[in-house]
Each structure stands twice: as C-alpha cells, then as structure tokens.
From TrEMBL:
It holds the Pfam family Fer4_5. This is 4Fe-4S binding protein. SUPFAM superfamilies: 4Fe-4S ferredoxins (SSF54862). The chain crosses the membrane at residues 70-102, 123-141, 178-197. GO terms for molecular function: 4 iron, 4 sulfur cluster binding; metal ion binding. The keyword Nucleotide-binding does not apply. The lineage of its organism: Bacteria, Bacillati, Bacillota, Negativicutes, Acidaminococcales. GO terms for cellular component: plasma membrane. Signal peptide: none annotated. PROSITE patterns: 4FE4S_FER_1, 4FE4S_FER_2. Keywords: 4Fe-4S, Electron transport, Iron, Iron-sulfur, Membrane, Metal-binding, Transmembrane, Transmembrane helix, Transport. Residues 220-239, 242-271 form the 4Fe-4S ferredoxin-type domain. It comes from Phascolarctobacterium faecium.
Amino acid sequence: MAKRTLIQILTAFLYNGNLPGFLNGRIWQGPSKSICVPGLNCYSCPGALGACPLGALQSSLSGLLLRFPFYVLGLMLLFGLLFGRTVCGWLCPFGFIQELLYKIPSPKFTKNKATRTLTKLKYIIGLLFVIILPVIFFYVVGVGAPAFCKYICPAGTLEAALPLLSTNPFLKQNLGMLFNWKLFLLLVTVIASIVIYRPFCRFICPLGAFYSLFNKLSYFGIQVDNVKCIGCDACIRKCKMDCAKVGDRECINCGECIDTCPVNAISLGSKVKKADTNVAEATNN
C-alpha cells in the first residue's frame, strides 16, 4: 500500500526531525523529549525529538529510585486502545527498515507453525528484560538497569550508537564487549530481515507484544465483515505475519489482505463506525 509507505516515511522523519543532530552528534534535549512517540525509536538517536515508550518504561524501573511508571503506561495504554498493532505496521521506523531489507532479492523463509510458536518469545523477553530484570537489579545492586535497551535492542544500536560514534570519535575509546554484542545482534537482525519478514517485530519486540494485547479492542484497525466472508483464507495466505486470522494478536493492520479478499469483506479504519454500519445493514435486511 503506497499510502502506508508514505506514512511510514513521514513518521520516521517526524520522530527524528532533529536533522542537525546527525551532523553534530548531539542528542536533542528539548521539551518534546518528555513525550513518548507510539513506535520503537531510540531516545538517544541524535535526531529523535521524542522518547521511546519502551525506553521510558525501563527508565522508570531503573536508577536509584524505583517508580511506578504511571505516565508511560498511561500513554502506552492510550496508544494501544487507539491503534493496537497498527503502530507496528504504520508508525514504527524500525519495522519500516525491516520491510525495506526484506525487499532485497533473496530466498525467503515464509511463515509456518514454527514461526507462529516463536511469536510467543517476545512476551517472555518483554516480561523478563523490561520488567523483571530491572527490578532485580534494583534490589540486588541498588540501581535498576534498562536491560532490554542495554543488552538487546538493535534499534538503539542502529539509530543511536552508530550515528553517535560516527560524529564523536572519543566514544570509540570506551567501546567494549557490550557494544560488540549489540553490534552482533544488529547484524543478525539485518541479515534475518532480508530473508524473514520483520523478524524483530514478530519474535523479539516487547512493544509489539504489549500492543498486541489491544489489537481486538483498539478503536482503529482491520475488520472482517463476517456476513460477506466466505472463509477462503486468501487473506491468511497473503499475510506475511503469523496471523491465524485477520485482526488477531499478530496482525499489524498493514492492509495488504484487503485487495486479496475476493468478496471485499475486509476493511481498515474505525471499528466503531464499521460496527454501526454492519448493524444498520443487518437491520435493513
């Protein structure tokens, strides 16, 4: 969908509008940095104008004081209830990068039962690295640690570490095993993205795991008209995510299934309006 691609590009620029930061290697510290953007976008990216919700959540559980993240969780709940995983499909720059990499001609690994099972891994990673480990660090060491951002997140390596290293040579003096590990994970993600559609989103991303909990409840998203649907599963065969059915927890509401449906039973938009329309049509019939 050309519209989705355009929105993904615009989102990347809106999230990272501090273009001079990429040249001078300085992280934006303006007032907008206190506001979380919906998608995964590293706070330390020199172009970032806002905060990453996942990073902000971990920051609340890190440091010398253990604080309940009312503000961050409130925003994440708002994003989830409004959009669900539409954020992943339309408003996440790192997801967009993976899609671009997948366009590189190469043999492709398509979804199967194994990949569907692997999608559960992101929930385990989220629980362990975003919540449990930071709290354990706090009680054992006295200082919490943003475990996911520090030890796993390849988006941070790509969007923050590499640009900052390119403009701040003195940072290279402090590189060690942790950076090498993060760089290795980034390379694995890049290579995997060439042959597997959005592997980080499907198997690793805790933010996508969180938003998936709201996919069926969200105001905006994919809907299927069950009256029109003939159960041919053309939509599922078209989908490159691990969806068992349209709109389930793995659906990123990309809309690629819409044109595939032979009876035009799939739509993308406000679920409330669609539900009202279906009720009206059923009443008239």
